[in-house]
């Protein structure tokens, strides 16, 4: 590994495609440096900051184009293996009842983590579970209609009597 390989904290919040696009910009800068273009000119041409252009130039001078190569996302690799994700998606489609939760037909992060742990013997925190689901393309779902058991009179009473006390605090 080269000492000056580019690294963005937490992957820079970037997808692999976005990281590759940034890497291409750095490679383009290296090509310009090789043709004698100065860092301020590179910054203007590629529409990047002068600070970035000077940093890239220093790395390029020190170790060549390879120093501008992306190192990928930072941090440890996920313990959630790629082939597990396909299995998990299929299990989530079956619904919570297929996994023993019959009283409430909603997936929660804790339930999803439990399903993963039962199958693969790996525990994930709610935050990790959410990250995995988000990467798989799942989003937060909100019920479209109100529960059949909802008592409108009790709700109105709560809003009228209890909420003003809570709100003042």
TrEMBL record:
The record, for InterPro entries, names:
Homeodomain-like_sf, Winged_HTH_dom
Matching Pfam families, A to Z? HTH_23 (PF13384), HTH_33 (PF13592)
Residues annotated as domain Winged helix-turn helix: 103-162
Q: What is the protein's given name?
A: Winged helix-turn helix domain-containing protein
Species of origin? Streptomyces lannensis
């Amino acid at each position: 590994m080269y000492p000056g390989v580019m690294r963005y904290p937490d992957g820079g919040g970037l997808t692999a495609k976005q990281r590759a696009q940034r890497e291409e910009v750095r490679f383009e800068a290296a090509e310009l440096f090789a043709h004698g273009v100065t860092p301020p000119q590179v910054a203007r041409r590629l529409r990047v900051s002068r600070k970035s252009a000077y940093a890239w130039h220093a790395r390029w001078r020190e170790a060549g184009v390879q120093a501008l190569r992306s190192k990928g996302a930072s941090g440890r690799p996920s313990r959630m293996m790629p082939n597990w994700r396909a299995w998990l998606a299929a299990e989530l489609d079956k619904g919570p009842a297929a996994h023993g939760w019959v009283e409430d037909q909603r997936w929660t992060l804790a339930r999803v983590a439990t399903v993963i742990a039962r199958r693969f013997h790996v525990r994930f925190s709610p935050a990790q579970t959410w990250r995995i689901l988000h990467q798989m393309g799942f989003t937060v779902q909100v019920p479209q209609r109100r529960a059949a058991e909802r008592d409108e009179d009790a709700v109105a009473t709560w809003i009228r009597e209890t909420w003003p006390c809570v709100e003042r605090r």
